[in-house]
Give the backbone structure.
Amino acid sequence: MLQQELKAQRGNHELGGWYMYFFDTDFGTSNFGIMGDVQHRSFNVAGDFQQLILRAGLSYKITNSTLRAVAGYSYFNTGTFGPSNAQLREDRFYQDLIWTNTFFEGRIALLHRIRIEERLIEDQDFRSRYRYFLNAKVPLNTKTIGPKTFFTYVAGEFFINGEQDIGDGQTVSLYDRTWLFGGLGYQIKKGLRAEAAYMREITNTQTKGQLILSLFHTF
C-alpha cells in the first residue's frame, strides 16, 4: 500500500532537486496583499517526482513595523521514491507571522517566520504542525542588499508535530524534521532575486541533501 511505499523513502540518500518560485504583491497602497509559491521537488536532481506544491495566502502588513501576518491554503501532491507511481494528496491550511530586522548598519539582514499548519492528508487523521524559520543574509559586493548585489546566506527551519497519533494505528514523533541551508544569491533588481543553496534535511530516520534553486518575485 501507499503508506508502506512511503516508508521506503527512508533509504533514499540521493541528492534531491527542489525548484521554487515565490511571489508577493500588495493591493495598491493597501496593507493587504497576496504571497505564495509554486514548487517542484524531485528525489534526485534530474527526475523521480517527489512533490508538487501550490500555495497562496492573504497577507497583511502591520503598520509601523516589519511584521506581516499571512493566512492561506496549500495543495500538495506527493510521489513515491523509486519506480512506483503511487501519489498522495494533502490539503493544508496555514498561518504565518513574518518579520525582519538588521544589524551592523544593514550588513546582516534577518528574516523570521513562525508557521502553523493544519494538514488534511489522505488516509490519515487530522494533523497539525508548528515551524520556525530563520534566514540571515550578508551582502558581498555592497554594504547593503540592493540591485546588482551578490549575497551569501544561511538559514534553518525547525518542525514539531502537533498530533502523534495519525490514525489507523500509525504514529509520528513529536519532532518532525530540521532543514539547514547555506547558499548564494543575486538581487537582480528591486523585487527580483535568485538564490542557489544546498540544504540538509534531518529527520529521526535519515539525513538527505537537497539542491535548492529559487526565484523570488515582488511586483
About this structure: The first helix runs from residue 2 to 7. Residues 10 and 206 are 6 Å apart (CA to CA).
